[in-house]
Amino acid sequence: MISDFLEKSRKVLWAAFLVSLPVTNFPYFPAGMGGSKVSVRPLLIYPLLLLILLILPTLWKRKLPRVWLPFLVFVLLALVSSFLPVFSGVVSEMSEVTVISRLIRTLFTLFLGGGIYMVVSLMPITEEYLDFTLKWLYVGLLISLIWGSLQLIYVLDLVPNWYNIMKIIQRHITITRGNRGRVMGLTQEPSWFADQLAALYLPWIYSAVLGNRSVFKRITKWLTVEMILFAWLGVILVFTLSRSGYLIAAAVLGAGFIFFRRNQSPTREDKQSSGFAGRILGWFRTLPGFVKTLISAVLIIVVLGGAGYFTSRGNNYISSMWDYWRTSSGDIQFLGKKSLSGYIRNIGFGPRFLYWETAYNIFRAYPLLGVGLGNYTFYFQDFLPAQQLGYMPEVLKILVPDNPSIITTKNYITRLLAEIGLFGTAAYISFLIVIAGEGLYIWLSKDQNQKYWGAGILLGMIAFFMNTFSYDSFAIPNPWIIFGLATAAFQIFRQKDISNRERSN
Fold it and tell me: At 271, is the pLDDT very low, low, confident or very high (cuts 50, 70, 90)?
């Protein structure tokens, strides 16, 4: 009876964990966990802590995933790199921020990400549990899309004063209130919401659409809940007006259509389809594979580019991506002609290249173990490359003596190289390779259910790779969810394959 109660409690907490995923910056965060001093405050921390308490006593009874080994090596090396500056007596020149405070905060984010990964990798124990996980993951997405749709009302200015009404409610969900021109969902800002939709939810939804699979009862023979969520997600994503979100979504959609859609040979009915649309579809299916791939890629680029263009015509942040080339502004005033470097500065990427180059300089000076997690900010000025900073006010603001601020690399891999060195980065990349290998192993199965999970994992890894160029925090839950589900699915399907082989022998 006690075991039944514990199992029900685990499922309830697991469902609460998945539903709370969309809330990334909960305003009511305990002071012991950083309180108002941290920007990433996932609501899932509450069910996560309870799940850890339920899981820990059972670990000694279970065979733990082998992929934990490179991950634990990475964590160990990160700890060694982070504590070395403390033991060697490194002193921060920033009076507001100390080496110890940065160490505590960054270790908290690392343990938070690691805790999410380990819980997600252990919770699903059967195929039915995987489907249960998907259902509640989609419930969280549904809540997020509903809230995004309510925000879309004030973005389109459909109801007078609607923004002010939503702002009052939003303050109890996130630490920011958003702006009138972009949808931000239940996150801190529109780009976070776009990343959540494109990198966390889209791989699973799109994989289901490509494989015509559903964990719910079908609405009709051809229509599924996943198809509705896919279309709805696409509409809301467009109105986030996030450049990184668009690029990640384009990569996931393109890779999915090219590599993971089900190949269907043209039937006699396809070739004899009536109607203009039917004849076009039938003709398309008879084309060679590489031609279909090329046409599909062009259509995806045209559709996404067109949607982004028409929804962002009044937004300078997005329109700067193409306005630079079609107007006489920009570098032409200074250099007499357009240039790629001028375009990069115009769209706001100039400082990022500077951050990445600085991180590389730090890595060259401390190649093996780095300078410790979170300490990039203390070495930034010393390793800043010699460049003209007049067109980079973002960087100039950081360098003002009376206004010191925390600075990060804004790139996952360059942060790892600078802060934990070659050893720690190698361990982390080994972990990623194993995760990708798990996804590939599952996708190569002949079982359609396994193919779905394999495609979702690999699309999630593609989204994560794209994301490494835009953020560097361990506390963002999105990749850890992908990694955890990959490990859980691999454990389940690997054991199933072993059992089937044993029975056949």
Answer: very low
